[in-house]
Prior knowledge:
Blueprint: H1 3-12, E1 22-25, E2 40-45, E3 48-53, E4 58-66, E5 80-88, E6 96-106, E7 120-127, E8 138-147, E9 149-152, E10 159-170, E11 177-179, E12 192-197, E13 211-214, E14 216-218, E15 220-225
Antiparallel strand pairs: 1-15, 2-3, 4-10, 4-12, 5-8, 5-15, 6-7, 6-10, 9-10, 11-14, 12-13
Amino acid sequence: MSLVAMVLVTATAILAPPASAKWYGSTLxxxxxxxxxxxxxxxxxxxxxxxxxxxxxxxxxxxxxxxFRNRFTFIAPGxxxxxxxxxxxxxxxxxxxxxxxxxxxxxDPFSGRDQPGTYTCCxxxxxxxxxxxxxxxxxxxxxxxKVYDVRDKRLRFRIHSSDGLALSFERGGTVPxxxxxxxxGSYNAGTPQLVGYWPRTGRGDPRVDGYPLxxxxxxxxxxxxxx
Length: 227
């Protein structure tokens, strides 16, 4: 099974969420250890994994789940609000922007269920102003950002659009990533998944060029409430 297929299985296996506020995203286990910012990226090649230049001054990262784990890490559980975010940083963190990315899939006009293999991601719907992160600490920031989950099975639409949470960064510091060297490229259960974009996603800019990487955890949590 391909990595993309396993991520989709992980996402679609999630159970219906509660209505109360709850933290989603990374488990924040471990310490961020990435020594680079948007100017570089960890990539896989014939000879394994290496740090490669991106020639970009900004980037966006989104969590893509833990393989075969029922945990919301990117897509919001439903229409509601993001009331707080938490980011665990290293010693020299880059400035961050909260970013809402919208993806969509086709739905069956009779059952209303998502059609397998039709999900596409993403277009930035919201990008916050840049803010600073505390070095070697967890930064908690209050927010009031609306997120949507809309399903319409009418024949002329047949679409399910959903918002997901991501972070964008600027040159001048490191990104809050936990690189698990023993899990890089792994398909084992519980392995964190990451998707990156260079340069960062701009509001209203469709981006399908995300680069997936297995074994890297984006140290980012978000508090969602249905209201």
